[in-house]
Structures are given as C-alpha cells and as structure tokens.
Design a protein that fits this description.
Elements (H helix, E strand, L loop, with lengths): L1 E6 L3 H12 L4 E5 L13 E5 H9 L3 H4 L4 E3 L1 E6 L10 E4 L9 E5 H14 L3 E5 L3 E6 L4 E5 L4 E9 L6 H5 L4 E17 L6 E7 L2 E8 L3 E8 L1 H9 L2 H12 L6 E2 L5 E10 L3 E2 L2 E3 L5 E2 L7 H21 L7 H30 L3 H16 L1 H12 L19
Parallel strand pairs: 1-2, 1-11, 2-8, 5-13, 11-19
Antiparallel strand pairs: 3-7, 4-7, 5-6, 9-10, 10-11, 12-15, 12-16, 12-17, 13-14, 14-15, 17-20, 18-19
Helix pairs in contact: 1-4, 1-8, 8-9
Length: 406
C-alpha cells in the first residue's frame, strides 16, 4: 500500500509531491505520459506572489526558471469602462509594504520543466505514468485507485490535483458548484516597444478586465476577458489584425505591439467544492476551486492548499497518526474553504461591478477605488491580504533565512 498518492502532474500536483518530499514524506504521483509541446509551446504564465515564490525556493526549483521570470514591482488598476462614474487609476507599489517586489510572473513551460526534473530526481517520489485514473473509491481505512491500464493502487490518502473534472472528487461524492461567468479569456504572450517597468496593468472594461503582466525584456503576457463570441473572434484573427486590435485596446500603454505568440481561449466560471477533503481524498487546486483570472489568485491559492495539507500530514506522521483520517481532512477543509471562499467572493464582486449597468453599482465601485487611492494604510492592508491570508501561511511558504544572533 502507498501511504500517499497524488493524482495529477500539473503545477499543483508536482508541488504537492515535492513539498511532501521536502518534509521527508514519500508519495506516489500518477502522471500522464509526458508529450513534448512541439512547434507551439505552452505560453501561459502565472503571476506568483512572494509566498508562492518562497515555496518554489524551498523545494529547490525557482533557480532553474528564475531567468525566464519577470519581477512584479507594481500593480495598476485603470478604469476603462466608459461609465458615468469613472474611478481613479490606482497604483499598488511593492515598496509601500517594504518589499522589493510582489512576486514574479512565471511562465508555465520552464516552471513545469523544473518541477518535473526535481520530482524525477527525488528518492521520495515514485512516478507512475498512466493514461489516467479511471476510478477512485474509499473505505474506512483506505482508498483504491484504478488506472486505465488495469493497475490498482491503494493508499491512506489521495491528493486530488486532477483539475476541474476531478475523478477523485467524483469518486468520493464531493459535490461541486460550477457557475459560468458568461465570459472567456484569450491568452498569449506578445512583444512591445515601450518598457513595462515591472508594472502589471488591469484595464477594467465593461466585458471584463484586460490584463498585461510583465515578462523578461520587452515582452508581456496577456489575459483578455471578453464575451465568448468576441473572444472567439479575437482568437480567429490573423496575427496582424490581432496586433492592431490589441494595440488599440491598450491605448498606447506599451507602445507598438509585435511578436504575438500562440493564442488560447478558456471559458471562465466560478467553481467551488462542497468540501476540500472527505473519504481519504484531499482536493488541491482546481479540483476544489477555480475562478476568473482577476487579481492573480489561481495558482497562489492552489499552492496554499498544497502547503497547508503538507503541514497537517507532517503533524500526523510525527504523531504516528493516520494521514487520511476524517479528523485531518476536516481540519484541512475548514482551513482551505475559508481562504478560497473569500478570494472567490472578491473576484466575483469585482467582476460583477464591471459588468453591471446600474449607476449605484458603478458609483460604489468608483467610491471604493477613490478611498483605496486616498488612504495609504488601507491600500497597504489590501496588498498584504491580496498576497496572503490573514490566518497565516503554511511553513513551506515562510522564508528559511535566519538572522544571525546579536
């Protein structure tokens, strides 16, 4: 029997295995066969805040992809709704909270290379390549996984990092609510002639935000939220036409747009599981929560799942307790649901304020941004909350640098 099995070898699953290994806890990870990206590389990126970067440093992978990442020094919110009550531009600067940066924009492809290499090198991680997990079931003392190849595995704890359509979540009857936002996101990487200066900019528009996030040099990543029909048209444009449309919508922010990379499109929704852990299954990442890409919460939230679960499992191992017990999973669910729920509500509220035609809603949004811009203590508090929950961080997200004794 495997003590712990991780399903899924995306960033959340690989980080889960590596964080457990850092705590000297062995696990098995079920990974799909690695298929090279070919001529069209994965150009997705994730804006990771400092605690998430600390996690990557503590598991020994950030140095392998640091050169591909760009610092996030400031976050700018710009009202581009054209509403009657125009909100002021708000600039959040990392130095206001005593930090050199909020974090880094991390490209998916180099991050995944670093995570896979670290997992393959670890003596505490067993990697099982499979075409997929077909079923997960649980009894009072173990979980059973059936793989596509007919192999059966048993474990005390299943870490479900298998995404929105999680087989593990379905197998143990954890209910989920998935509500479409009626929007899609167009993503790509592009070049430009004006420096971004480490500033990530969200243009708040009626259909949703258009966000540009720094990448190394004169490059940025784009997350453009639109109505699904408009998003489809944007994806279908040729590169020259897309450059013109993007440049027009950026209103000169980054100069002339050039070198547009492959475009992808993602339908957006708010997904939340009824519980983050039950019946020997712990949900991490999008198996338990997902939301539109507003405020850079996605992977940061998933990595806090991973760190919190690892802390609880470490306690159980140290106390010679069951790592998949109901008590452990109830604690995990209680800790993670509140964080995810608060972030989802904030994202939902911001999105609804953009989409609403009601003048009182537009006025309230404008007043809120006026207040944030005017009051430094409030602005600094929001920055701290945006980067980390008020309940504290998992141990793997805390710096291990120790100041010398006086």
């Amino acid at each position: 029997m495997d003590e712990i099995v991780v399903i899924g070898a995306g960033p959340a699953g690989l980080c889960a295995a590596l964080v457990l290994a850092e705590a000297k806890i062995a696990c098995t990870i079920i990974a799909g066969p690695h298929r090279p990206a070919g001529n069209r590389p994965d150009t997705r990126t994730a804006a990771l805040f400092n605690p998430s970067i600390t996690l990557l440093e503590n598991i020994g992978v950030f140095d392998q992809c640091r050169d591909d990442c760009a610092e996030l020094k400031s976050i700018r919110l710009v009202d581009d709704t054209g509403g009657l009550f125009r909100a002021p531009e708000v600039l959040f600067e990392a130095h206001e909270i005593g930090a050199p940066r909020f974090g880094y924009n991390v490209p998916q492809e180099p991050l995944m290379r670093a995570l896979r290499a670290a997992a393959q090198a670890s003596e505490l991680i067993r990697i099982v390549e499979s075409e997929g997990v077909r079923s997960v079931s649980a009894t009072s003392d173990q979980a059973e996984l059936m793989l596509a190849e007919g192999l059966s595995l048993t474990s005390k704890l299943v870490v479900a990092a298998d995404g929105r359509r999680s087989i593990a979540r379905q197998g143990v009857d954890i209910a989920v609510k998935d509500v479409s936002s009626g929007q899609s996101a167009v993503t790509c990487v592009f070049g430009h002639t004006r420096p971004h200066a480490g500033v990530s900019t969200e243009l708040h528009r009626k259909a949703g935000p258009l966000t540009v996030v720094p990448m190394p040099g004169m490059m940025s990543s784009l997350v453009w939220v639109e109505r699904p029909d408009v998003a489809d048209r944007l994806r279908s444009l040729d590169d020259a036409a897309f450059k013109r449309v993007l440049e027009d919508n950026l209103q000169g922010l980054l100069g002339v747009v050039r070198d547009v990379g492959p475009r992808a499109i993602f339908p957006l929704s708010h997904l939340s599981a009824d519980s983050m852990g039950r019946n020997r299954v712990a949900l991490v990442g999008e198996a338990g929560h997902a939301m539109p890409p507003i405020g850079a919460q996605g992977l940061n939230l998933s990595l806090r799942d991973v760190g919190t679960l690892a802390d609880l499992v470490s306690e159980a191992v140290a106390g010679n307790s069951d790592v998949g017990s109901s008590a452990l999973l109830e604690r995990y669910s209680a800790l993670r649901k509140s964080d995810a729920k608060n972030r989802d509500f904030a994202v939902w509220s911001m999105n609804q304020a953009l989409l609403s035609d009601l003048l009182p809603v537009q006025a309230a949004r404008g007043a809120a941004l006026h207040t944030i811009k005017a009051f430094g203590p409030l602005r600094r508090q929001l920055m701290q909350i945006g980067m980390a929950p008020t309940t504290g961080l998992p141990s793997i997200m805390r710096s291990r640098d120790v100041e010398p004794a006086a």
